[in-house]
Amino acid sequence: MTDIADLSDIAADLDWLDYEAETRAHDAVVARRDLGRLAGLIEWLAGVQGQFPIREISRPRLVLVASDHEIAGTGVSTLSPDDTARTIAAIASGDAPLSDFAARSGTGIRVEELAADSSVIAAIQRGAAIADAEIDAGTDLIIVGNIGAGSTTTAAAAISILADVEPIKVIGRGGSGIDDTAWMHKVSAVRDARRRGRPAGAIRSDCSPR
Questions:
Q1: Range of 178's domain?
Q2: Where among 56, 73, 97 does a domain terminate?
Q3: Residue 137 Cα distances to 59, 66, 173, angstroms
Q4: 51 and 70: one domain?
Q5: Kind and range of the H or E element at 140?
């Protein structure tokens, strides 16, 4: 129960989006049907920055969390730990397609390796520390990604529990391209995790906008 209380404290410290700025952005872009999904991103960024027009992004940063989870061995992923190590090495050397894309867009990349046995609380606390460090360094847009066998299953479980969303709505095919049988197994794994993590759902009542 201590972990649940700690997580609630972390959630309570979050700043919520500026509704007035979002509304101004929405009113300005709603008529621009040519913007497509970009319109939603403009609204979100206005809410984050608390102003509209939005400020130009000057230091975007991609933070990749790399971690394999033992659940990958149960058939929810076609990846092996070797795939994760090779991907990290390719990114570090600049040979990965992602490295080229980041260079072309002027986005820095930060890879953070996380132990597979880290608790959810420890992982969230480390993530908060990374975000704080990036913000202190002048980063004004943090893009979060993940690398690792079984990582999308564990992420889906956390999202399903904390957001109270049914497993089927937060589970895709994953980066490894699983088949129908593996997908159904993945749904079952997240469903089981929801049962074990049900007490964490209580923190949602502490996460309403202030």
A1: 57-206
A2: 56
A3: 9, 22, 35
A4: no
A5: none
β-pairing, 60-66 vs 141-147, is parallel
Rounded Cα distance between 83 and 148, Å, is 8
At residue 140, the pLDDT reads 93
pLDDT at 1: 39
**Are residue 131 and residue 178 in the same domain, yes or no?**
yes
Q: What is the residue type of 30?
A: V
CA of 207: how far to CAs of 2, 5, 8, 125, 196, in Å? 17, 12, 8, 17, 21
- Report which residue type is found at 54: I
Q: State the pLDDT at residue 209.
A: 45
The distance in angstroms from the start CA to the end CA of the chain is 24
Q: How many CA atoms lie within 13 A of 171 on its CB side?
A: 24
pLDDT lower than 50: segments of the chain: 1-2, 202-210
Q: What confidence score (pLDDT) does residue 10 get? A: 61
> What pLDDT, on the 0 to 100 scale, is given for residue 51?
94
The total domain count for the chain is: 2
Helices within the chain (DSSP H only) = 2-12, 19-29, 38-49, 81-93, 97-105, 120-136, 151-163, 167-170, 180-196
Average pLDDT, the chain: 79
